[in-house]
Every structure is written in structure tokens, then in C-alpha cells.
């Protein structure tokens, strides 16, 4: 790994983040969250892009200060080009271009999904990075997919959701339970106090390694409507058990396909990435398969699971070493395949 110093900028959704990386060691990783979306039960794109405009300069300044790095020491600037909310991405892209031009350093575009996966190669993400080829269950509010990672930039999506992402299912079910947004971490916390076998919800029958999460959401909704008619306090009286049962079902759906892929492709190196990889039940299920199936498992540090600029900086560092720079005419893109 070279000693180049790279500034990474992430603005794909509602977190404005900036990080400094030297080699594959993170010197700073700063994020500004947008609490305003809680009021609306989900991210409002217009409000998100406005908040990015307010946050981006202070966040970048703070990341430089924390890393004790002067602007003129930066070797290149990496930024999230997509996928994500277009307005949010435009703020990060425009800022990265302007700063790269003013400092006369190369610009490096980064795919947000690749970054989640390659976060595993940050120095302190794992005790050891995964060995190629490995499977990575990439699971967040916007994406759920199983990726076969053959090399840093040779990735193949072998299974993905045909409707809702797993994180989206947690949030929508949380709304049914009248929980705040984002509901995933709240469900995880409440599930620890509940019985995961208290209630049974539908699991989809999907071909190959694909997922579907709209069915469990509908199953929960109909079940709740039926029970609340009988007892208006049903949710309040059974909240912990409901959360535990929902969480168990979603994690079982995720793990069944991952286990199938690992077995059929004969891969023992298995990783998780994305916001839902912070879920305690998913981490426990991975640990169980380490013991039961002999997997070598890779679970990233919490700070590298949610949207963060450290993972963007990591990919930019890998591209910098390969001389893969981006033309200044580049534009952000809401849809961006692996």
C-alpha cells in the first residue's frame, strides 16, 4: 500500500461524511447525520441535499483537522458517484470536483456498493482482510445482494432482492409497530428482550439466490390488523416478542440464501457489509456458521457498516495505486451497477 493521502467524500443518502486515509490506515472518519428525517418516517431527498450543502465544508474541515493533515498534502480526492439520491450525490460530486481543481490533484469516482464490500480492506476493519474469492452479503436500507468477489474490482452479483431491501423491510415493519425511523436498530434493541419464536411470519420461496422482503411486511401487517381488532393494546403488550420474531425471520431469510451460495460455490470465505451488517442477530448467525460450517467470517467494525467516507477513501486508494483517475466532466448517477 502506498503512502498517498486521500480525502474520501460520501453523500449518497442522508449522511455527509469525509475521511482521510494514508495507505489503508484511516486517520479520520467524520460524519454529520440528518435528524430531520425522523419527523417524516423516511429520508426526504430535497431536505437531504440541502443539509449536505450545509454540512460538507465543516465535515471536510473537521476530517483534515482530526487527521492533522494540511490540504496541500492531499494526493487525490475520492467521492461517491452513485448509486443513491441524485440531489445528495450532486452536492458531494460538485464539491469533490471543485476541491480537486483548486488543489490540482486527481479525482477518483467510487461506486458506493463496491465501497461497502471493500471496506473490509481498511486496516482496522477486521483482524485479517478476506481472501479472494469470497462471498459478501451486502445488506442495507436500499440494497440486499449476495456478491461473489473474485478480486478488488471483479465482482459478480449472484443474487439480489426483487422488491424491498432487508433494511427497508425493518423500517416499514417498524412503522407498523409505530417505532421511530430508522427502525432497524430499535427492533434489534427490543428483540434482545423478546422471544424470537413467539410469532411466525411468511418466508418467500425464491429461485436461485434471490430475495424478496415485501411478503414478510404484508404478513406482519395483516397479522397486526387482525390482533389489534381483538386487543387494541396488542402491539404495546407484545412489542419485544414481535421485534424478536420479525428479526429472526428476516435474518433466517438472509442466511438461507447465503448458506446455499457458499455450499454450491464451495466458498468458505464469507463477509457481510452495509448498514444491516450492524444487526446483532445477523452477526450471531455469521458466528454460528463459523463454528457450524467452518466459514472464515468477516464482520466489519460498526463504524464501517453504515454509509461512511472511510470506505470511499479505501476504494479511492486502491484506484489511485492503479492510476484509475476520473475526468472532470464526470456526473453523479442515481443508478450505478457493480
Automatic annotation (TrEMBL):
Q: Which UniProt keywords apply?
A: Acyltransferase, Cytoplasm, Iron, Metal-binding, Transferase, tRNA processing
List locations, semicolon-separated: Cytoplasm
Any one Pfam family match given in the protein's UniProt record, by short name: TsaD
State the needed cofactors, names only.
Fe(2+)
Q: State the reactions this protein catalyses.
A: L-threonylcarbamoyladenylate + adenosine(37) in tRNA = N(6)-L-threonylcarbamoyladenosine(37) in tRNA + AMP + H(+)
Top EC category: transferase
EC number(s) in its UniProt entry? 2.3.1.234
Q: Which NCBIfam families match?
A: gcp_kae1 (TIGR00329), T6A_TsaD_YgjD (TIGR03723)
Its biological function?
Required for the formation of a threonylcarbamoyl group on adenosine at position 37 (t(6)A37) in tRNAs that read codons beginning with adenine. Is involved in the transfer of the threonylcarbamoyl moiety of threonylcarbamoyl-AMP (TC-AMP) to the N6 group of A37, together with TsaE and TsaB. TsaD likely plays a direct catalytic role in this reaction.
Q: What family is this protein classified in?
A: Belongs to the KAE1 / TsaD family.
Identify this protein by name.
tRNA N6-adenosine threonylcarbamoyltransferase
| Species of the source | Chryseobacterium endalhagicum
Amino acid at each position: 500500500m502506498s503512502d498517498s493521502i486521500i480525502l474520501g467524500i460520501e453523500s449518497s443518502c442522508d449522511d455527509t461524511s469525509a475521511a482521510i486515509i494514508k495507505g489503508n490506515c484511516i486517520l479520520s472518519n467524520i460524519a454529520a447525520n440528518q435528524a430531520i428525517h425522523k419527523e417524516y418516517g423516511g429520508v426526504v431527498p430535497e431536505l437531504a441535499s440541502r443539509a449536505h450543502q450545509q454540512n460538507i465544508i465543516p465535515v471536510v474541515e473537521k476530517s483534515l483537522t482530526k487527521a492533522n493533515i494540511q490540504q496541500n498534502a492531499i494526493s487525490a480526492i475520492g467521492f461517491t458517484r452513485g448509486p443513491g439520491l441524485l440531489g445528495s450525490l450532486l452536492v458531494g460530486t460538485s464539491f469533490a470536483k471543485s476541491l480537486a481543481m483548486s488543489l490540482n490533484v486527481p479525482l477518483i469516482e467510487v461506486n458506493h456498493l463496491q465501497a461497502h464490500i471493500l471496506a473490509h480492506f481498511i486496516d482496522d476493519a477486521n483482524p485479517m482482510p478476506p481472501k479472494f474469492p469470497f462471498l459478501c452479503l451486502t445488506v442495507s436500507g436500499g440494497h440486499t445482494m449476495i456478491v461473489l468477489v473474485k478480486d478488488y474490482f471483479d465482482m459478480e452479483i449472484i443474487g439480489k432482492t426483487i422488491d424491498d431491501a432487508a433494511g427497508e423491510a425493518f423500517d416499514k415493519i417498524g412503522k407498523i409497530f409505530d417505532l421511530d425511523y430508522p427502525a432497524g436498530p430499535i427492533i434489534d434493541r427490543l428483540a434482545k428482550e423478546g422471544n424470537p419464536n413467539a410469532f411466525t411470519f411468511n418466508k418467500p420461496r425464491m429461485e436461485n439466490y434471490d430475495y424478496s422482503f415485501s411478503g414478510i411486511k404484508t404478513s406482519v401487517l395483516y397479522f397486526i390488523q387482525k390482533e389489534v381488532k381483538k386487543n387494541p393494546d396488542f402491539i404495546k403488550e407484545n412489542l419485544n416478542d414481535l421485534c424478536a420474531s420479525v428479526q429472526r425471520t428476516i435474518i433466517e431469510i438472509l442466511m438461507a440464501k447465503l448458506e446455499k451460495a457458499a455450499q454450491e460455490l464451495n466458498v468458505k470465505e464469507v463477509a457481510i457489509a452495509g448498514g444491516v451488517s450492524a444487526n446483532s442477530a445477523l452477526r450471531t448467525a455469521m458466528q454460528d456458521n463459523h463454528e457450524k460450517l467452518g466459514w472464515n467470517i468477516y464482520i466489519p467494525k460498526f463504524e464501517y457498516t453504515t454509509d461512511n467516507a472511510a470506505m470511499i477513501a479505501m476504494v479511492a486508494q486502491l484506484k489511485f495505486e492503479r492510476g484509475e483517475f476520473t475526468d472532470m466532466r464526470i456526473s453523479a448517477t442515481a443508478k450505478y451497477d457493480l
